[in-house]
């Protein structure tokens, strides 16, 4: 069966967003980002920006690669837009991985892929 580009995109979107596990994970990361973005409205002080540690931790280890790229490109002065975009991209990549694992575990035993031979 030959897959078209549209069906591949739909499959990736279904794995990354529309299954239960991925949706819960994305809601968790999105909630953490909303709380972090609203933090400066309610908290003032030198430690107010530390709230951004939570979204970064929820997207680790993929976000570690983003931080490495930021350090390589900008040194110690990585722009905020790059880090926030990295959190979003890391969450989507990890959501895709979670969706793939979830789909694999939910398949009936007869439909699991087996090596040819």
From TrEMBL:
Q: Respond yes or no to whether keyword Membrane is given for this record.
A: yes
Q: Name one Pfam family in it.
A: DUF7942
InterPro entries membership? DUF7942 (IPR057702)
Keyword Transmembrane helix assigned to the entry: answer is yes
Q: What keywords are annotated for this sequence in UniProt?
A: Membrane, Transmembrane, Transmembrane helix
Q: Where are the transmembrane segments?
A: 23-43, 50-69, 81-102
Question: What span is annotated as the signal peptide, if there is one?
Answer: none
**What protein name applies here?**
SCO4225 family membrane protein
Q: Organism source for this protein?
A: Streptomyces lienomycini
């Amino acid at each position: 069966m030959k897959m078209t580009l549209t069906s591949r995109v739909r499959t990736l979107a279904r794995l990354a967003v529309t299954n239960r596990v991925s949706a819960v994970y994305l809601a968790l990361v999105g909630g953490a980002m909303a709380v972090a973005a609203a933090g400066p409205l309610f908290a003032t002080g030198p430690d107010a920006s530390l709230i951004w540690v939570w979204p970064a931790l929820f997207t680790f280890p993929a976000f570690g690669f983003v931080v490495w790229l930021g350090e390589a490109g900008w040194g110690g002065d990585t722009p905020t837009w790059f880090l926030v975009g990295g959190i979003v991209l890391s969450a989507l990549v990890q959501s895709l991985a979670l969706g793939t694992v979830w789909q694999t575990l939910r398949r009936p035993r007869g439909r699991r892929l087996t090596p040819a031979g």
